[in-house]
Amino acid sequence: NTEISIPSVKPGLEVDEDARIEGDLIYTLTKDAAIPSSVVEGKVTRNEPVLDVKYSKPEPTQAEKAVSWTLDLLRTIVTLILFGLLLGWLAPTFMKTLTDKLQAQPAASLGWGVVAYVAFFFALFLLVTVAILGAVIFGIITLGGISGTIIWVAILALFAAVVGFVLVTVFLTKIIVAWLGGKWILGRFNPSLAEHKVWPLVLGVVIVALLIELPFVGWLIGLLVMFLGLGALWIWGRERWQMRST
């Protein structure tokens, strides 16, 4: 094998003491270069680098920010309404049960939502730990095939769990709270509309989406909505588990 040495070139501008420049020297750097005075016969000038405006992204105007915010809000509203209508069509009993649980136990739903959120990440940690231990143990006793299977099963389980959790927290929790909120508001003005299959969802989604997009407090409202929806789902799942156990 033949070793090839690659010369190292320092960044910036360097001028050797033995060099001679007959005339002026103009260079562009962010700081002065160390140039021997005897090298340049003429004038030495340093220019600051200038950013090419063609390649710089301009700061959006207030009007552009407002348009972007409005479009994002509309996309959120339409997406939540479509998902809500789909869930109401495919699983009407399930959605009604969740909203009833939230309406009957709002404080408990909020508390259990926090528990469910923490429990999910704790379960992920346990799954990763068990998968690593299982892979190491079966690898030590030379059952490499089982070790590889455990790793792949764990990866698929993690992927399914994360995707499911994201769908629940991003869509389902907001739909549950929005549906109940819209039903509650319409019930104060027009009880017949409160039992409609569409209008409570539409009204609730618009209100929830607007509240979540509020500056400074929107993120907190989003957390509360997520915990309330998660808690209602947790209470429903716990009761189903208890019914099966008995």
Give me the count of strands.
2
Count of all domains: 2
The dominant shape is flat
User: How far is the first residue's CA from the last residue's CA?
Assistant: 75 Å
Q: Percent helix among the residues? A: 55-70%
Task: Provide the structure class.
Answer: mainly alpha
Note the run of SSEs as H and E: EEHHHHHHH
Question: What can you tell me about this protein's structure?
Answer:
- By secondary structure, this protein is mainly alpha-helical.
- It has two domains: 31 residues, no CATH class; 184 residues, no CATH class.
- 69% of the residues lie in helices and 3% in strands.
- It is built from seven helices and two strands.
- Strands 1-2 form a two-stranded parallel ribbon.
- Helix 3 runs antiparallel to helix 4 and helix 4 crosses helix 7.
- It starts with 24 loop residues before the first strand and ends with a helix.
Summarize the structure.
By secondary structure, the protein is mostly helical. 69% of the residues lie in helices and 3% in strands. The chain has two domains: 25-55, no CATH class; 62-245, no CATH class.
